[in-house]
Amino acid sequence: MIGRMIRSATVNDVPEIRAMIRELAAYERAVEQARATEEQLREALFGEHPAAYALIAEDDGTGEAVGYALWFPRFSTWTGTRGMHLEDLYVRPRARGAGHGKALLAALAATCRSNGYDRFEWWVLAWNTPTIDFYKSLGVELLEEWKVCRLSGAPLSELAAQAPDVVNPAPDVQEGHPCEPL
């Protein structure tokens, strides 16, 4: 067992989670894209229908939050089972190398096993060699043949405007269906 303090996030952690999201975005050279507010995070993580879940890594001596992992369930049509998508894994620079990242990943892997999830997946930036090397040391399989696709902003709106009427559309997420697309 890895001797690091990992716990489920609480609503009181939201300001610290937001701060670490911004730190991660700065590290990934995209701080202008990290626009989530504390209110949005509070609703997403602790609202009536959570969209995601978070773990906090704490310094063993001080209890200070030194990292977090934010994840949500996904579904595989190939396996017919749920899996886990890790949206963010971040450990503050001063705490790196002490095992917090590995402890967070181990806790998430245990969550996968206890929930019967067959897959645990996430993305990593191609230039982030230290992180890629860390993941490889854990036995992570890098799926080089896959490309991430993203549709947002004006192109998303333009495509949405072309949508045909849907027969029996799925209820809006706000009406209580947390696994429906946003």
From TrEMBL:
InterPro entries in the record: Acyl_CoA_acyltransferase, Diverse_Substrate_AcTransf, GNAT_dom
SUPFAM superfamilies: Acyl-CoA N-acyltransferases (Nat) (SSF55729)
Pfam families noted in UniProt: Acetyltransf_1
Domain of life (superkingdom): Bacteria
Domain N-acetyltransferase: 4-161
Coiled coil: 17-44
Assigned keywords, A-Z: Acyltransferase, Coiled coil, Transferase
The keyword Transferase belongs to this UniProt entry's keyword annotation: yes
Classification via Gene3D superfamilies: 3.40.630.30
Annotated CDD domains: NAT_SF (cd04301)
Annotated protein name in UniProt: GNAT family N-acetyltransferase
Organism: Streptomyces coeruleofuscus
